[in-house]
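ok trying this again, last paste got cut off
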Amino acid sequence: MDDVLRIAMVMAGTGAGGMEKHTLELSAELAQQGHTVGLLTHPGFASRIPPTVQHLAVDLSRSRRHPGLLFSTWRHLRNFRPDIIHAQANKASAIVTTLRPWLPRCKTVATLHNEKSQIGMFRDFDARIAVSQLSANLLKPWPTHVIYNGIAATTLLPIETSAWKGFPPGPRVLAVGRLVPAKSFDVLLDAWQSIEAPLVIAGSGPLAEVLQARLLGLGLHNRVRLLGHRDDVAQLMHSAELLVISSRNEGNPYVMIEALHARLPMVSTAVGAIPEILPADALCPPHDSAALADRVAQALQDLPATRAQFAPVFERAACEMTLEAMTTQTVAVYRQLAERR
């Protein structure tokens, strides 16, 4: 195996969450570094895949045991002839595990992105990666590399936004995420009954109407707003004073990493990789609106002190939680496998 690797990335997700972002950006950066990358994923991702990455299109919305899905995946991987097959998350890992006896001779890697009860599909891979130590602990006793998610560095100037227009004065608080049960925005709204600061929630999803009704029912319409989908989340972060993550479960959320790069302090539930990164005083248990409200109130009471507490975390993110660092560590895993041959 020479310096240039042929890497087949397999991603079975069809959404727009952190796992999909991770895979698309990692694939693009690997190609940018000179590796030959094929991304086997749903045809719907075609417009989001750069020309430097070969799109191996398969309808992965079907069952992981679907004969057509398995045959199409096998054919693409056989024709691509990779040195490394890297499966992202559980479904892709299960597909690669099923096909492994018939795949080209190559090394296999699988990444666990979130807490899962079923992890047997990760057993027979040559290497495993987890996006947090918590996820790595789930894969014991199998050896697992912990590689935190990272993003490309950007420079944005703060600009005025109308997101908080019409709210009374006060520190601006932001929440970001899909409007789905895992994000626990219902708990966040309950917590906000005792918080006077204006809050905006950026994101769309199936719970939009339910959350809007809850917001109105709690009488929060004068200081809480659902923004829907936004393409300017980075700018919203630069115009806010605090981020809140209320999730009941996470892996290593990109919204946390993006906020750290924007030097935006936050309060969060202690889930996934978050307790490994944020100060203890910024954390509270999930499902607990009173505890969440208490942490937010403490953070807002002395924002300069809150920002000072986060200073070393901001510096750590700038050094360790970058797309370049994530890719370098991933390639190091690939190289270790190459040396075993």
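PB: full thing came through this time. The mean pLDDT is 93.
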